[in-house]
Fold this sequence. Notes:
By secondary structure, the protein is of the alpha+beta class. It contains eleven helices and 24 strands.
Amino acid sequence: xxxxxxSFRHGYLDYQALTRQLRQWADTYPEFAHLHSIGTTPExxxxxxxxxxxxxxxxxxxxxxxxxxxxxxxxxxxxxxAVAQAALRLHQDAEPPPFGLPEHVRERLREVLFHIxxxxxxxxxxxxxxxxxxxxxxPRDRPAADNRPRWRPQDLxxxxxxxYLRVRDNAGDFVESQRHPGLMLPRRVEDPPPYWKLYPxxxxxxxxxxxxxxxEMLRYTTDFNRNFPWSxxxxxxxxxxxxYPGSEPETRSIIEFATSHPNLYAxxxxxxxxxxxxxxxxxxxxxxxxxxxxxxYRQLAAWAEELVxxxxxxxxxxxxxxxxxxxxxxxTDYAYHQRGCLAQVCELWDLFHxxxxxxxxxxxxxxxxxxxxxxxxxxxxxxxxxGHRVFGRWQPLQHPQLGSAEVGGADPRIGIWNPxxxxxxxxxxxxAAYWLRVAALLPHLEIEELRCTALGGGHFELQLTVANHxxxxxxxxxxxxxxxxxxxxxxxxxxxxxxxxxTQSAQRDLGHLDGWGRGLGEGxxxxxxxxxxxxxxxxxTRWLIEGEGxxxxxxxxxxxxxxxxxxxxx
Length: 570
């Protein structure tokens, strides 16, 4: 598998190219790559899902990766494809395990299903690639009940890109940098004119000819990451919430897939930008989080720092835009609380680190904390390391509504919202190596022993011992252990030419089994009192059988899959 021929590692793919890559893998590796659509967008594009693993229809523990939930965040698709490529490599005997993994880890990972949805919003990504501007999730607006005027993106100068408009105004709140043409800076008291107002390149719908509206990022559009069922709140309590949870076909397709696939144990939701992993809780502080789950996330944080170089932060404590105001309808919260997954966001692309911005007290403050010096440092980085992709010169324009104006300024697609393509291979490798490590934590059910013991008088004891040899417990994260769908492990026996002494005991609930892992920061690991849980990872059950014949035992549940073994009774 030649990295040089995988274009997603060196650029951003449109819908046709992404589809071509996925179909190529499915055609080349039909024994362990299965491609199907989980939904169709309003513009007629498929929401592709690539499942990687031998016998992809056989149920067993699985992980999920999605990218490009937000239209502008194209790097998520490239990185999701890199995870898919790494998963495919696990099944190629001629190649060594990817990223130097030991052979026994590769063997365990071959039993994990990887569900990869590289582009949750193909309509949004296509709009970004073809015209630019700002698209939060998808390029469609909800109708406005109040008919207020609003900005609509439009390429006014015919260059194929929507950038910005600036209009000279003595009350303007921006000035242009003297050092970096195209960079607009917030106005200071001592700044001399000219002063400017900034708007998106476009036109004003329902304009009264007098009052220019402020551009509103989420007033008329649904943010997919506010449209999931857990803790969903309607507007205006949560901007971008949509009409109801799953109101958008893209989010509804994800919800339906996750609900019908309870075997998901880990979930990676790829965004840009920032260079940070965001973990639950999204809606509360760490002292309200299950402490066992928190220890698991500490282990993930250690690997994230080691393999990717990104810190990990609490969604509530370091990523709420307003203090004590959690985001509602978030996908990670849904995956963690409602689907029992070890779930997290990764904001790809560590731009703040690259430009040398100091770390603020709360990571989210990076996004509002750039000083004018930081902005000029960003423009200098754009010139020296990004080929002037972001900041362009202003050109005069006669706007059809506002009259004399200028068009140009920032195109944040490559260099702000997404990394330069030259950096993609490094980012792809880091996240893929990290996610394989996380996938290796999944529970792994094994039948350790199935034996028949003669008791005399034509009676036999059938003994079954099953164990979880994986890191995680069979129920996944503790937050969702008691969900009704999170079924216990069940064992069932069927007989031929012999019979159970008590037929009502053919099926047994065995409960859940612990894994061997505890995360990091557990007192049981400390050298002053090290201890194991005992045998809570293993359970034995017995049946009494009359007569000779055969018995077939099945054990498992909808998350772990089923193991079946037949034994002679004699």
